[in-house]
Amino acid sequence: MTSENKIYFYPIWLRIWHGINALGILILIYTGINMQFSSPKFELMNFELAVNLHNISGILITLNYLLFFFGNILTNNHKYYRLKLKGLIKRLNLQIGYYTSGLFKHEQPPFPLSQKRKFNPMQKVSYIITMYFFVPGLIITGLALLFPELIIEKVYSVSGIFMTAVFHASLGFLVSIFLIVHLYVASIGKHPLNNFKSMINGYHDLNGH
Ligand code: HEM
């Protein structure tokens, strides 16, 4: 294969961030489910161990987020996260049409990837929402729960800690849903493993789509 068929989309800093992030989030989901639903009848792992692992992974994910945030600002990668609102609904509809129908009829994708376009519109929107709203929200509410003295005692008559915990668990749920869809979408291509290989070697294979 000639190098024209490959694009270096994932520089090393991005792959390191992504690897730590993926592992950290998986640990957070597993330990979080254990903490949320743990009872004498149901325990995926020792409760105290789950709490400790959750706290450590949460701090790791927070520090790692700085790598994503500043890496994106300081390199060209931020240009792939710029969203043009004009015509967005139309572009999203085209992409949804492809995922729900065109893909199964072996049609060409409406937004083929290129040096200028790393994400299709749905990927772009979901990455922006996840990385700039859900994950920071999880980090802020997680840090607040780690240092509860920082939380307002009562919001109207509801406990501030309770409300923060509800927000934290809800955002955790949304990131879990994102992850399931993310894994499915990443497996779409000529071979289901192509995109996963790209995240390891850095190169996106244009023939793999
Ligand atoms: C087992 C876990 C995961 C696997 C196997 C995985 C796999 C992948 C793959 C193959 C790509 C490149 C193709 C693409 O853009 O779709 C990718 C990109 C990406 N993933 Fe994941 N992912 C995982 C977890 C996560 C999590 C938990 C998040 C965020 C909370 C995340 C956020 C992203 C973002 C933002 C990109 C685009 C990065 C960029 O190029 O700027 N991933 N992932």
Give me a quick take on this structure:
The protein is mainly α and 209 residues long. The protein has 6 helices and 4 strands, in the order βααααββααβ.
Question: Describe it for me?
Answer:
Helix content is 61%, strand content 5%. With 209 residues, the chain is mostly helical. Strands 1-4 form a two-stranded antiparallel sheet. α2 packs across α4. It is elongated. The model has no long low-confidence stretch (mean pLDDT 94). It binds protoporphyrin IX containing FE. Protoporphyrin IX containing FE binds next to α1, α4, α5 and α6.
| Amount of helix | 55-70%
Bound molecules: protoporphyrin IX containing FE
Task: Provide the CATH architecture.
Answer: Up-down Bundle
Instruction: Report low-confidence residues grouped into runs of 5 or more.
Output: none
Mean pLDDT: 94
Helix- and strand-based class? mainly alpha
> Looking at the structure, what is the overall shape?
elongated
Helix segment tally: 6
Work out the radius of gyration.
20 Å
How many domains? The number is: 1
Name the CATH homologous superfamily: Transmembrane di-heme cytochromes, Chain C
Q: What is the H/E string?
A: EHHHHEEHHE
Largest sheet: 2 strands, antiparallel
**According to CATH, what is the topology?**
Fumarate Reductase Cytochrome B subunit
Give the percentage of residues in beta strands. under 5%
Number of beta-strand segments:
4
Distance between the termini: 14 Å
Across the major sheet, the strand order is: 1-4
